[in-house]
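Annotated sample (chain length 1474).
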Amino acid sequence: MDHAKSNLIWNYKTREELRDAFEAEIRAFNIDKELGIASVISWNHQEFEVRYECLADEIKIGDYYLRLLLEEGENEETSTIKRSYEFFNELYHRFLLTPKVNMKCLCLQALTIVYGKCYEEIGPFSDTKYIVGMLERCTDKLERDRLILFLNKLILNKKNVKEIMDSSGVRILVDLLTLAHLHTSRATVPLQSNVIEASPDMKRDSEKEWYFGNADKERLGPYSFEEMQEFWKNGVLTPKTRCWAQGMDGWRALQAIPQLKWCLLAHGQAVLNETDLATLILNMLITMCEYYPSRDQDNAIIRPLPRIKRLLTDNTCLSHIVQLLVTFDPILVEKVANLLYHVMQDNPQLPRLYLSGVFFFIMMYTGSNVLPIARFLKYTHLKQAFRSEEAKGQDLVQRSVLGHILPEAMVCYLENYESEKFSEIFLGEFDTPEAIWSNEMRRLTIEKIAAHLADFTPRLQSNTRALYQYCPIPAISYPQLENELFCNIYYLKHLCDATRFPDWPIKDPVKLLKDTLDAWKKEVEKKPPSMSIDEAYEVLNLPKGQGMHDESKIRKAYFRLAQKYHPDKNPDGRDIFEKVNKAYEFLCTKSIRMVDGPDPENIILILKTQSILFNRYKQDLEPYKYAGYPMLIKTITMETSDDQLFSKVSLLPASTELAFHTVNCSALNAEELRRENGIEVLQDGFARCVAVLTNSSKKGDMAVEVCGHICKCYSVAAQFEECREKITEMPNIIRDLCRLLYFGKSLPRTAMLAVECVASFAVDYWLQTHLFQAGILWHLLVYLFSYDYTLEESGIQKCEETNQQEVSNCLAKLCVTALSRLGGYLPGEKATPENPTIRKCLAALLSPYVSRRLSKDTPAEILKMLNSNTENPYLIWSNGTRAELLEFLEGQQESMVKRGDCDKNYGAEFVFSEHAKELIVGEVFVRVYNEQPTFPLELPKTFAASLLDYIGSQAQYLHTLMAITQTGKVESDQHEDRLRRAEMALEALRNVIKNNPGAETECIGHFKLIFSLLRVHGAGQVQQLALEVVNIVTANQECVNNIAESLVLSNLLVLLHSLPSSRQLVLETLYALMSNTKIIKEAMGKGSLIYLLDMFCNSTQPQVRAQTAELFAKMITDKLIGPKVRITLTKFLPSVFMDAMRDNPEASVHIFEGTHENPELIWNDNSREKVSATVRQMMLDHFKQQRDNPDVNWKLPEDFTVAYSEVGGELSVGGVFLRIFIAQPGWVLRKPREFLIGLLDKLTELLETNNPHGETLETVTTAAVCLFHSQPQLADQVPPLGHLPKVIQALNHKNNVIPKSSIRVIHALSDNELCVRAMAMLETIGPLMNGMKARSDMVGLASESLNRMFQKEQTDLVAQGLKVELVPYLLRLLEGIGLENVENPAATKAQIVNALKSMTRSLQYGEQVNEILSRSSVWSAFKDQKHDLFISETQSAGYLTGPGIAGYLTSGAMSTVIPSGPPPVDNEVVNLAR
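Output written by the structure step:
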């Protein structure tokens, strides 16, 4: 593989030469070996060497080939250099030994590469001073460039930097920097249009800067640089010729002057052109400065200043570095800006930097890479010690060295923003409140600076070391800023332009306000210029009277005098220098618009700016008292008193607007305005402007604007008591305010401000009164009817600027608010004093309802109501009422404005013609309310109380009217109308109570009145409505209690007969009242039972009868009076009816109408007719007495009873007919437990009797057996009742009838677990065996009972059986002994066998039983056989086969007769006159 590396060259030739060398060596060794065969031969490998002839031309130093090393350069991808320190020393050794320049340059190039790669390994270079010396001495351009490139790498080690400084290397490098001015072949950079472009024919001759001395020591010159080059070519100049030019500290040999040395004397081809060389040196200087920062790690300033920065700050270096800026090369300018930024960090010489002209040169730069420049300017521009006492502008601009060069805004931008933001502005086109800057303005800046520098830039191309002599530049005037007023950091004209910049942010509003006030003061105090043109010419020593001098001539005169009297050169010339500066600045700015005195336009801008500040930054400025009131009041006063007020550019609109914003911002300002007599001054302006208003005035008129601003100002001032007192003392304010509202139809927006002012004045009672007396209501109310609610509800986007109706709507809303405040309607924080007079007028003009809504509804809701046709209980509003009101208002308005008088009552007595016809109670239209009963009332209780008062006032009249009517006297229309109104009031009372829960409590204390209306016979509608009222109030317990205390129930009871159409409602009412025991007691006394019984028995309406039954049920359930009610009812009806009424009222009616024969009721037609007739007659008798005397009581005779059925001979227990029950055992009893107890009591009573009635005992026993079979669960209740021992004991009775009954009962109970368990605890088996012996016919039934009991595994019963020798007894029965009279012996024996087998199953006694049985000869015949076929199921068939019964009316045995025809007509309506 071939290789071509700096440390290895290997190819075909080297391989061939290696092969040839080995072959030749081997041949020679073999020959020697043959010759010395007698000895051992060894190869001399230590001296073997291969000479590669093909590499003879390659320069090799150490292990590296120089050519290839240079070709690789500093490429990081190349292999690292091994033993770099040794190799570097070998290279440097070769460099020192070679006399050839080219070889030296190659070595320098290699040294540069090696040190650049391995400077850390190599370490400091000890001969740095020598290299610097060679650089100063050499005259070959190639060697110079290689030395500088080597030094560029040497500074990678900080210690080498010190060696460079020690050997004056910094000065030498700076001298080389100046050659950049001679580079004329730079690439053309495409720049912006603001560059001053030069055409080819504009080339000018070089400046004559050079002098030299000949052999005779004569000074020759001055010559241009081109002429010096000709002298060199012609041999006139030699390396030792002494030369001089401006900027040199003395005569020097030509070879010691860098410019002449490298342009005339030097030879060789340079590696770098002048610009690249300067760029390299600047980078080196920047790197050196970075090694030595101006602050330590604690941010403390280092002193003395680092040496590298001291060297660069020296006059021999700094000026030449700065002047590189005028090369305008982008890279050089950027590098110089960076270097100066580093050098000037905390540099004590920074304040004098401006003398180098750096700010002029750097601002002339035309490129776009201005970020380093901006960073440099931001750090330095405020730290220059220049003198600028006469500089115009603010403090920041006065302190900035750029104040005369850049507009004030750009200086502020530089200071207030980061460098990046300033660079963006500097390169762009901006027209904002903070920056007005364009390419054209940048171009003008460059032109002005270039003109100021005059011929200095061309001189540098002739003499690169020429030094700039600083002269201040007059302030540059920009035409674009002629009409601008700059304050703080803003152009006020732009800041006040609300169209272009509506919400431009203001950083420090307080500072801007202070600066604005200062600017206002300066503007007011502005005077004409203190210097004339001729005086300025005289100061500059220019001739006068010859017209205007050329600007260049003025500039030259200024430069000449400025250099002569500059304080740095002539400490005694300071005063003259300042005069010269002032004259020059005056002449350079004389074209600026100059005003003799204050400029109105500027003052307007100042006023508007303050308004913006107070408007947008209210919170920030609120703590500060406004300091500009003296000037503001003076301005308003002057403008108001000016006869030309309406024919010039007036300050009055802006002044009054500012007055509003100041007081709106802070209470302190409102008080201050008052103390400065501001309210009086504003009134003068207000009166002046209101006086010129007409119907043709427009919103843009000056007078209209002023009126609006003053209204707003008064609105705010009215918040403060002392200001209100002042306004109260000035009635003309309110008069002018009303006049302004009069013209508001053509000026709606201004009218809105006036209405807001009225609303603000309403905070004070006396101001309310003054406004009221001035007729303010006429103006405000008229605007309410310009509202269009359809626009509000349309959902369309709208704004006041484009929609005139929206303006009218907003005005109407404000008028509603103003009216609310005038009357004191609003609650909470918006509350104002109540004004009864205004409230009375508004109630008359708008109706009481609308006036009350002012405190609750939104303005939009009220306005929609007023502009719609509405009919509700509070408001009847139509086109007619609106037209009637508008006609009245417009008439009063016209009269007030033109004649100064109006209605003396101010509308308080106004009445709508349409409302005069209506019945109005409690501010409610009763007719409408009855049509809209669900309408939500504001105060339903109050309305109810008003209705009761009205009804009370009409009650006596109604009674008298009915009495007259019944005697036959003729009624008039008036009587009919009064009756109709009373009916309307009662209907309204019913509706208000029905739809407003809680309103019924207002009836408490009025029930005697309401119930008395129930007796207005002949006025059925009145009775009906009164009844409905009573019915509704019964839902309230308090009302029920009050009714109970009023003792008026008789009036209600009479209606059951006298008002048939309302019976259901009466019953419903009574049902509600019966929750009160006191009322039930009163009802009993007043005959309610007889009325209700009549309804139940004789009514033809099933619903009425069911309601009556339900009412009876409720009365019976009362704990105190209920039993008495039940007793009374049982004298008319069987008790089953009361139970039926309780359980199912409808069923009770069906029972009453049917014919029944069931275990609990025997009822037929005769019973029903007898009860109905008795009840009807008693009711009619009582009704006649009670109609005439409401206090009469009803009482039933104690011995009264109705024989309503024939039940003689029927045995009844617990309300159940036993005969029928036995026939219908499945009947669902109403009270089965009560029946069970009664039945067992009756049974035990009979069982304990010696000779009971046989049929009765049989019936009772059969009923008990049927009960236990039909309802087995009832047997669970028998043991606790205590009857079981008596039943068992009866088995031992001597009367054999009684044991039979006991056995039947025990048989029925033997199927129940609890009963068997109870019998096991008693002596049961012995008595049962006795009973079996007494009644052999019952042996089978008893045996079955034993079988059942033994099957329950009751060990005690088996033990009892063994004790009484039951088993032998039963075995004897099996033998037939004792069964002779038994009807079915086989079945009986089968039951006995089952009983015995059950006994054998006993765990404890089974074996004993089996032992006894085993001894019996009979048992063996029965034990293994089953006898089920012998047992008949018919024994209990008679008890269990009754029909299934459910309910009162479905008994299988009852006979219900449904009538085939209608019942007789119920003659319930009694002729009251009978």
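Annotation: The chain is about 55% helix and 5% strand.
Annotation: The CA atoms of residues 1317 and 1354 lie 7 Å apart.
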